Amino acid sequence: MSGLKRALDRLVRWLPAPGDARLIPAADLAAADLDLPPAGEALRRLLEALEREADLSAFGRLSTRRDLRRLLRLRRRLHETLRRAPESERQTLAAPIFITGLPRSGSTFLHRLLAQDPAQRVVRHFEALDPLAPSDGPDLRRVRTRAQLAFIERLAPELAGLHPLTSDTPQECTELFAASFRSLRFDTTYDIPSYRAWLDRAGSRDAYRFHRRVLGVLQARAATAPRWVLKSPDHVFSLDDLLAEYPDARLIFTHRDPLQVIPSVVRLTAALRGMFAEAIDVAALAREQLARWSEGGQRLARARATASASGTVLHLEYRDLVTDPLDAVRRIYAHFGLPLEPAARAAMAAFVAAHPDGDYRSHGHDLERYGLSAAEVARAFEDYLDAYAPEREHAAWRRRWGPDRRGVPQRRA
């Protein structure tokens, strides 16, 4: 825990938990019922989980309540914007590109790389937090975002190396989903298993409907319709809902060795939850993330069986992406039949030269420190590896983690 977080906890320890809806003004709560679509049930489930399960610190209670009020007010402002400017609802969002796959598999670097093409549009971090530019007066959204990021860096210094952000960094769709209150952003930030289980059952179709409306507002300000490039690992849990809302979507699945993915995602999630929780049980968190992303891997394996024959799906290995990013870009554009203009190619080459490691510092990710073994991870991801591991790596994986080494069962033909 940082010294700043301890000081803030002492200052606000008297605050009650944010899950008590009485602590959010009725005028703000009413925004949950606006047809964007309505989000009353989702908000209720989230509040209940925060109250019963999240074990928030005093600072966590304060910041979470402020965040919920911000999201509710954003819903009201968005509703008013759509009422005043109905042309936003008529925007055609043609064939957007969605990047997804296992977390920590190079998707963030790829998202930022593709954003260098002037023909493409991403949602910047400051826009994800507040997509509505002021109708008059100065636009202070970047200023507010920079101040927030500076505060977070003091609160959790390790985040800068794990997931670096600026006000203009391309942001994930989960942040856009937040004001629908159907977002795994909350599950990443808080330990709220009942909310996650409810969202898995209820589905994310309303989140994608809300997502489309926000993109429509952003696109309505553009002189020409852009090609959207969007990203989140969490899309793997809602591919059917994504394709129901965006039936012409192009999908890029990024892949990486789960032995590298799991400890990396545990470390990132611990850093995020540590800002708001009283304490983190890292071993329990590791098993939670292993189970969750093993399920994600199984969903990806099923997706390969049903969707990979389509020209709208491309699979990209982490090793290929980081070894030769520009060749990965060439493959993407060729696969989807997109023009790669010289200006875009030059901008991407300059980005790679300036960010040779994707802006990520080197971290040692040791499974054992999280109470996991390589054998457990191998067993959990066996279906995923059978579906996606290149033959040369799959054979090496079997030799390394077969029953003669750590008891990983081999699949029989």
Using brief descriptors, characterize the structure shown.
single chain, 413 residues, mainly alpha, Rossmann fold, five-stranded parallel β-sheet, 21 helices, 5 strands, disordered C terminus
Question: What is the string of SSEs from the N terminus onward?
Answer: HHHHEHEHHHHHHHEHEHHEHHHHHH
Helix content: 55-70%
The largest beta-sheet arranges its strands as 2-3-1-4-5
Q: What is the mean pLDDT?
A: 87
Gross geometry: globular
Radius of gyration: 21 Å
How many distinct beta strands?
5
CATH class of the largest domain: Alpha Beta
Structural class: mainly alpha
CATH architecture of the largest domain: 3-Layer(aba) Sandwich
Short description:
The protein has two domains: 3-372, Rossmann fold, CATH 3.40.50; 376-413. 55% of the residues lie in helices and 6% in strands. It has helices at 3-12, 26-29, 40-52, 58-84, 107-114, 125-129, 141-155, 159-162, 173-177, 184-189, 193-202, 205-220, 239-245, 258-274, 282-307, 318-323, 325-336, 342-354, 374-380, 382-388, 391-401, and strands at 97-101, 120-121, 227-231, 250-255, 313-317.
